[in-house]
Amino acid sequence: MKRSSQDSGSRNIPEDRKLYVVDSINDLNKLNLCPAGSQQLFPLEEKLQDVSTDSGNGSHSLFLVGLIIVLIISLTLVSFVIFLIVQTGNKMEDVSRRLAAEGKDIDDLKKINSIIVKRLNQLDSEQN
Question: pLDDT digit string (tens) for 92-115?
Fold first, then answer.
């Protein structure tokens, strides 16, 4: 009966910690500091809380989560900057095309103006 209650209580405990607790109990039994019947005084979970001084794992995992969040945010910002660069390039191409088209229009207007001035000069010279 004692064995089944101990087994049911230790199902959620990692295997390496179980072994550490069992080794500690065996060492106490060898030193005759703990009689054989007193092993059931404390459940395994309470013994493991004393043994677990591994609070660094929580800070490491928190650090990794923070690092992943920072990486995701930086990736998002870099993607946004690349998108803006592409959009700016497209706008610059549009402006260049418009300027080229307007430059051609201005040249055409200059030609038309020179033709009109020549024609007016011819009409003026005919009237004199």
Answer: 999 999 988 888 888 889 999 999
Radius of gyration of the chain (CA): 44
> Residue 121: in which H helix or E strand, if any?
helix 56-127
Domains of the chain, residue spans:
58-127
Structure tokens at 31: 């030193």
Instruction: Say how far residue 13 (Cα) sits from the centre of its chain.
Output: 33
> What is the spatial distance between Cα 51 and Cα 60, in angstroms, rounded to a whole number?
19
> pTM higher than 0.90 for the full model?
no
CB 25 within 8 A of CB 63: no
Containing H/E element for 16? helix 15-30
